[in-house]
Amino acid sequence: MSGTIQGATGTWEMVIGLEVHAQITSNSKLFSGASTAFGAEPNTQVGLVDAAMPGMLPVINKVCVEQAVRTGLGLKAQINLRSVFDRKNYFYPDLPQGYQISQFLQPVVGAGTVVLDMDDGRTREIGITRLHLEQDAGKSVHDLSPDRTYVDLNRSGIALMEIVSEPDLRSSEEAGAYLRKLRSILRYLGTCDGNMEQGSMRADVNVSVRRPGADYGTRCEIKNVNSVRFVQQAIEYEAQRQVDILEEGGVIAQQTRLFDSRKGETRSMRSKEEAHDYRYFPDPDLLPLEFTQAWVDEIASSLPELPDDRKARFVGELGLSPYDAGVLVAEKEVAEFFEEAARDRDAKAVANWIMGDLFGALNKSGLDIARSPISAAHLGALVDLIADDTISGRIAKDVFDEMMKTGRPPAEIVDQRGLRQVTDSGAIEAIVDAVMESNPDKVAEYRGGKDRLFGFFVGQVMKQSQGKANPKIVNDLLQQKLSG
Ligand code: ADP
Ligand code: MG
Questions:
Q1: What kind and span of H or E run contains 295?
Q2: Which of 18, 19, 277 to mutate to test the pocket of ligand 1 (most atoms within 8 A of CB)?
Q3: What is the pLDDT of residues 390-428, one digit of tens each?
Q4: pTM
Q5: With 54 labelled, which of 108, 212, 249, 372 sits at a CA distance of 20 to 30 A?
Q6: Tens digits of per-residue pLDDT, 138-192?
Q7: How far is the centre of ligand 2, averaged over its atoms, from the C-alpha of 280 (Å)?
């Protein structure tokens, strides 16, 4: 999965651009006061505007506009102080207006950037073409009855941001990294919950192939893909399909396609419609959106620290590697957990516990960090117990398992189970003597030059101390006594 495809006639390169529909976090819809809460009974959250009752007029929701501007700022994008709502005309049974209110020639946000953090620590900048506001459609339900289609208008009129990327992505991995990064930024900003399972984020995936360095080829657009994994599968399948056609001397027809996640295939839905087919024109029911720079600046001054800045800080101030920092900042909750646990401690040690043991354990129990039985404070306390030699790293793993099961503080577990490290040399010396006495043959072999046996003695002493003897003291004493 490298972004290039080796065909019989040579190498092909994938070119990918994504149009992401992100549902704006807001209590009410873009042009009505109806609720946006997920999971309600069908058709219980529908304003007269959303149902397109005759004579109803849309009223813009200021919160949604502010969220779009906030997102634009988070994408380091141009904020257009004047933008215009247009009608995009088409027939959809679940959009009673007969047109979608969107933005076309003058979107609220212009060009911006998303920085990808690739697995090998490299970064790559992907251009954002634009971000515009538009309404969502309702949902047609085809599987409740064999001979009827039902319509649920709860989604109708919900505010979406369509975030369009430049065709800068070159592999399915990059497309995945782009979606994850975009989702991370939106969540930090609080402008979209990024919940793909609930449909809060969907992607239209544009794919073409070309000879490396040649002009862009004809693209196909795969509609409404709703998970990162499916986006990646759809790209792999679609690029290969196009290469197969081109290799046989065929041409790519520009099409809108669907991804069948069960079969892992894309298939044709319709030939591509052109913008003029939609007969876009400015919506006469809505005035253009106009902002003052001061209002935009005010929103800018309230932005939180975003993942890229936080990553730079973790690298610069805490000495983490770019890779570790990238992993820890991706989810805001993880970054906050890490910061709390690492405060005034060895950041690298805390990072290792989180990325190794904690992620592993949470993953195994199907929990996310917000529901971690181990709190940040307790994880930090565990790292302290190792740092001040109260317990060894080995025993810490057992304490961690117990913390994961019970949520108890580590010091309590250590005390109750008597796990405190033995640093009393007298006590350790007694064990060393006992081990040497019961293994006289091994002592003789060691003294005869079989150095490898040293590990055997360490192991025996640690075992007899139930892992609690301070390893450094054990080493020193054994060195001393075995040589003597
Ligand atoms: P439309 O609105 O008709 O879908 P746009 O010009 O807005 O068309 O482009 C939509 C998306 O298609 C953008 O994300 C863009 O990056 C992507 N795109 C454009 N040309 C190509 C191409 N040759 N290959 C892959 N993606 C492309
Ligand atoms: Mg499109």
A1: helix 293-301
A2: 19
A3: 998 889 999 999 999 999 999 999 999 888 888 888 889
A4: 0.89
A5: 108
A6: 999 999 999 999 999 999 999 999 999 999 999 999 999 999 999 999 999 999 9
A7: 14
CA 378 to chain centre: 25
Pocket of ligand 1 (CB under 6 A): 15-19, 164-167, 206-208, 216-217, 219, 221
Hey, what are 278's tokens? 């939609």
Closest atom of ligand 1 to 274 CA is: 3
So what's the pLDDT on residue 422?
Answer: 81
For CA atoms 278, 281, 284, 287, the dihedral sign is: positive
Q: Which amino acid is at 131?
A: L
Report which ligand 1 atom has the smallest distance to the Cα of 208: 24
CA distance 314 to 325: 6
Residue 95 structure tokens? 């959009």
The ligand whose atoms approach the alpha carbon of 13 most closely is 1
> Which residue's CA is the closest to the ligand 1 atom numbered 24?
208
Q: Which two tokens stand for residue 212?
A: 């490396």
| β 201-210/159-165 pair status | unpaired
Handedness of CA 21, 22, 23, 29 (dihedral sign): negative
3-state helix, strand, coil in the chain (%, to 5): 40, 20, 40
Nearest to 204 by CA among 164, 173, 168: 164
What token pair was written down for 242? 């196009």
* Cα–ligand 1 centroid distance for 205 (angstroms): 9
Q: How far is CA 443 from the centre of its chain?
A: 56
Q: Measured between alpha carbons, how far is 404 from 369 in angstroms, rounded to an integer?
A: 12
What domains lie within the chain, and their CATH numbers?
4-298 (no CATH), 305-417 (no CATH), 425-482 (1.10.10.410)
